[in-house]
Amino acid sequence: MPRFGQADLSNCEREQIHLAGSIQPHGALLVIDEADLRIVQASANAATFLGLAPGLLGRSLEALPGDIAQCVRPHLHQPLHNSRTVLRCRIGAAGAPHDALLHRAPGGGLVIELERTGPVVDLAAPVEAALHGILDAHSLRALAEETTRIFRELTGYDRVMVYRFDDEGHGEIFSEHRRPDLETYLGNRYPATDIPQIARRLYERSRVRVLVDADYVPVPLEPRLSPFTSDELDMSLCFLRSMSPIHVQYMKNMGVSATLVASLMVGGRLWGLIACHHYTPRHPHIEIRTACALLAEAVSTRIAALEGFLNAQSELSVRRLEQRMIEAISREGDWRIALFDGTQALLQPVGASGAALLFEGHVLTAGEVPGTQDLRELGHWLDGRRTGPVIATTSLGAEAPAFAPLTPIASGVLATAVSTTPGEYLVWFRPERVRTVTWGGDPNKAVVVGDDPASLSPRSSFARWHQVVEGTSDAWSPADLTAARLIGESITDVVLQFRSVRMLIAQ
Ligand code: BLA
């Protein structure tokens, strides 16, 4: 496994970013032994930061000028609120106000991170207004737009994006608020590998991270190894943690100097990120970071509520469809009218762009679908794969090369049998997703996707995403599969009744 800073593009997925062994230089870090308050590990800049002569190791926190020991003492051996505690203290001979951020390293040692206190800001009113804006948003799109607006106003960064992950971890810039002269990244997509799994797990625990100046020189910890574990200090919860050099290079290639990124956790998983970029160095103080963490939490809660509502709506539309089929039989004698009298009723419950019904030798369609002959052949292919209530693929062309020409409109296929007769299906389609992407500039211009971090950029990321997802559609979610199954079951019931009535009449 590559150590921190040793990764290249071939193995960066496994870089040990939480074992950074160094910090960003806008603060200083001390590790103390709670038993005797001795400093056992410190960032190389700590003595200078505190206005002291070199040689902090082994000294007692009590001996430092200022009130830091007094501030820390009540927290010794006590559980820390939310794993981390923020104290305001005066340190150094000049007694300058500082924020001291406390947490316990997983392997032992009380970590104290020191940053100069920021200017006094009263965030109560803007945070309250922001919370109202978040709670009032009635769609995911409106919520994401409100979020980028709020975060830009609160933090002052040049660009704020809501970066949303799909079920496979690929990312999309879902909303954006930016300085008007900047080019837009809205709608762009990036491969899952741009944010390695190790980083995603870290972001579930450490909800707001900052890069203060991409041109920084990392400050090493001394000694490098923790005396508690004889191993690297686990810096997962450190605010000052050095960021992966590959990622910092990526930011530099984009011209970005500073970032603040907050996690959006929904239902226990990382749903997305709120990513703020600035084109000059920027140090957001702890009050702003705490406000961002709080607002990100509110946004996450709202996303969970809106997604729950969407799922409930989808269930409701399946029931409505069933109702309309029954009405259509009694009115027109044909249940199929209910499915095809408007395209949305059939497409919306599973988020498809086209659908086809293969029934009693007839083919009825809605939206964008393959030609009739292809649909009939697809029916035969589905017969060979009929093991459960639904059949789903996101890469039809790869699974059945004969259908490769259908890739642009039918990479994604979701089918449910509508009777026990072979070849009788309701089939939904989704297009190849690369088609649906927009890119500022010439989309056909070749982009080099090399092995050199110097080549990393949103443009090359997009090209890599393109390679990864070529020939595939957006994934069918568990809710889509459920909706398809329920619709299939309703139709099967209706067909059974329909056929038995027909047999009675024929007798
Ligand atoms: C981290 N990469 C990230 C993060 C983002 C991106 C948002 C999280 C940063 C944070 O939370 O502070 C990716 N950011 C983007 C993209 C855009 C953007 C795509 O603004 C486009 C607009 N990165 C790569 C590759 C590797 C890589 C190929 O592109 C190697 C596999 C690594 N990305 C990488 C690492 C981190 C990261 C190691 C963790 C950084 C850290 O927290 O130390």
Mean residue pLDDT: 91
Which ions and ligands are bound to the chains? biliverdine IX alpha
How many individual domains?
A: 3
Envelope shape? elongated
CATH architecture of the largest domain: 2-Layer Sandwich
How many DSSP helices?
14
> Whole-number radius of gyration?
29 Å
What is the CATH superfamily classification of the largest domain?
PHY domain
The CATH class of the largest domain is Alpha Beta
Helix proportion range: 25-40%
Contiguous runs where pLDDT drops below 50 for at least 5 residues: none
Lateral arrangement of strands in the main beta sheet: 1-11-3-2-6-5-4
GO molecular function: photoreceptor activity
Domain Phytochrome chromophore attachment site: 139-297
Keywords: Chromophore, Photoreceptor protein, Receptor, Sensory transduction
Protein name: GAF domain-containing protein
Explain what this protein looks like in three dimensions.
Keywords: Chromophore, Photoreceptor protein, Receptor, Sensory transduction. Residues 139-297 form the Phytochrome chromophore attachment site domain. This is GAF domain-containing protein. The protein is α+β, with helices and mostly antiparallel strands and 507 residues long. The chain has three domains: 19-116, PAS domain (Beta-Lactamase, 2-Layer Sandwich); 124-307, GAF domain (Beta-Lactamase, 2-Layer Sandwich), CATH 3.30.450; 310-506, Beta-Lactamase, CATH 3.30.450. The chain is built from 14 helices and 20 strands. The chain has helices at residues 46-50, 68-72, 124-136, 140-155, 197-205, 245-253, 286-332, 336-340, 343-347, 372-383, 396-399, 407-410, 458-469, 478-506; strands at residues 22-23, 27-32, 39-43, 84-91, 96-104, 110-116, 159-165, 171-178, 189-190, 208-211, 219-222, 225-226, 231-232, 258-266, 269-278, 354-359, 362-367, 390-393, 412-417, 425-430. The strands form four sheets. It has a seven-stranded antiparallel sheet with strand order 1-11-3-2-6-5-4. Strands 9-8-7-15-14-10 form a six-stranded antiparallel sheet. Helix 3 packs antiparallel against helix 4, helix 3 runs parallel beside helix 7 (286-332) and helix 7 (286-332) runs parallel beside helix 14. It starts with 21 loop residues before the first strand and ends with a helix. 38% of the residues are buried. The protein binds biliverdine IX alpha. Biliverdine IX alpha (BLA) is lined by residues 9, 12-13, 15, 17, 163, 185, 190, 193-196, 199, 203, 209, 243-244, 246-247, 250, 259, 261, 273, 275, 456, 458, 461.
